[in-house]
Amino acid sequence: MSIGIKLKSFRIHIYFNLFRKIFSQKKMTRQRREVKYFATSENNPPSGIEQAVVFISHILIILTFPLSIFLSLIVLSEYQRAVIFRCGRLRRGGARGPGLVFRIPCVDFCVKVDLRTTSYHVPAQEILTKDHVTISLDAAVYYRIFDPLLAVIQVENVHLATSMLAQATLRNVAGQKHVLELMSEKDAVSMAMAALLKSATAPWGVLVERVEIKDVRLPLQLQRAMAAEAEAIREAKAKVVSAEGELSASKSLKAASDVIAANPVALQLRYLQTLSLISGDQNKNIIFPFPVNLIRQLMMGKCAEPSQGSSSKKRASSNLKDELEINREVDEALEEAYRVLDCKIVKLSQES
Fold first, then answer.
1. How distant is the alpha carbon of residue 199 from its chain centre?
2. 52 Cβ partners below 8 Å, 6+ apart?
3. Do the strands 99-102 and 108-114 form a parallel or antiparallel pair, or are they unpaired?
4. Distance (Å, rounded) from C-alpha 83 to C-alpha 114?
5. Phi, psi of 104, deg, nearest 5
6. CA–CA separation, 348 vs 352, rounded Å?
C-alpha cells in the first residue's frame, strides 16, 4: 500500500514539474512576443465558431483513426521550423520543430521556414558614381532567418524582399563613392552595405551575415585611359631610376678619373687589364700594342719648323735627352707587347 502511495506521489511530482515547465515556456514566449515588431492575436480567446470547428475536427480525427494520423503529423528537419495558424490565428507557443508536429487538417495552416544560410547573387547594376562615371557592379549577399514568426508575418516573401533591398542598397552605397574607392576599398563598401541591410531586414527576422563585392566593370574608354596613366607612371619611374643610375655612375667615373690622374701607373694597369679582357679564350684576334707617346713624338716632329735657327740648336741637347727617354719607354712598351704577343701565340698553338 505504501509503495502505491509513493508511486502516485512521484507521478504527481513529475506532472507538476512538467506543467510548470510548459507554463514557464508559454510565459517566456508571451514576453518575447511583446518585444516583436507586430501584434498577434495568439493570446486572444477563440470565438464560439472556432471552438465548434476545432471540436468537430477532433471528433473526425478520432473516427477516422488511424488514417487521419498520416494527415495530422508533419516531420520537420533540424534546420526547419513550422509556423501554424489555426483558423487564421497564430497558435500559442511560437514556431514548432524540429521533429513531429501535430496539426488538425483543414483547420491548421502550416508554413515551413528554412533557417539555413541563403546566398543571393545581386545582378550587375548600372551605377553612376560620385565622379560621374557609369560602372557595372555586382555582389553576393549571405543571409539567414533567425525568427520564423517575423519572416512569415511581417513580409509576404522574405527572400524576394531581401533581394530587392540588396539591389537598392548596392546602388545607393556605390553611388556615393568614387571609382577608385570602389576598386581599392571593396571591403569598406561591403561592410557599409552589410550594416544597412542588417538594420533594414531585422524587422523581417532576417540576419545579413556578409556582403561581398564580386566585380567592378569599367567602361572601355576609362580602362584605356587608366592603362595609359599607369603606363606613364611606370615610364616616369623608369626614367627616375635611370637618371639616378647615371648620376651614381658619373660619380664613380669621376672618382676613378681622379685616381688615374693622380697616379699614371694606374692608367697603364687599366691598359693591361683591357688587353687581357680582349684576348679571351674565344677571341681569335691578334693585338699589337703601340705606344701613344711615339705617335705624339712623330706628330710633334712633323709640325716643328726647320727655321727655328739657333734656338733649336740650343735646345738640341735637351731634346736629345727627351728622345732618349722616350725611346727607352718605347722599347719597354714594345718588349712588354712582344712578351704578351708571344704568350698569346703559344696559347693559340697549344689549342690548335
1. 27
2. none
3. unpaired
4. 11
5. -95, 120
6. 6
H or E element, residue 43: none
Mean pLDDT for all residues in the chain? 75
Distances (CA, A) of 263 to 257, 259, 270, 274: 10, 6, 12, 18
Residue count of the chain? 352
Amino acid of residue 330: V
**Distance between CA atoms of residues 118 and 145, nearest Å:** 9
Q: What is the pLDDT of residue 320?
A: 58
Biggest CA pair distance of the chain = 166
What phi and psi values does residue 190 have, to the nearest 5 degrees? -65, -45
Mean pLDDT in residue range 261-272: 66
User: Does the pTM exceed 0.85?
Assistant: no
Q: Give yes or no for a contact between 169 and 197, defined as CB atoms under 8 angstroms apart.
A: yes
Q: What are the cell numbers at 120?
A: 543571393
- For strand 89-90 and strand 206-217, is the pairing parallel, antiparallel, or unpaired? unpaired
β-bridge mates for residue 73, sequence order: 102
Which pLDDT score, from 0 to 100, does residue 232 have? Answer: 80
Beta strands in the chain (DSSP E): 73-76, 80-86, 89-90, 99-102, 108-114, 118-128, 134-145, 206-217
DSSP sequence for 151-175: HHHT-S-HHHHHHHHHHHHHHHHHH
Question: What pLDDT, on the 0 to 100 scale, is given for residue 267?
Answer: 63
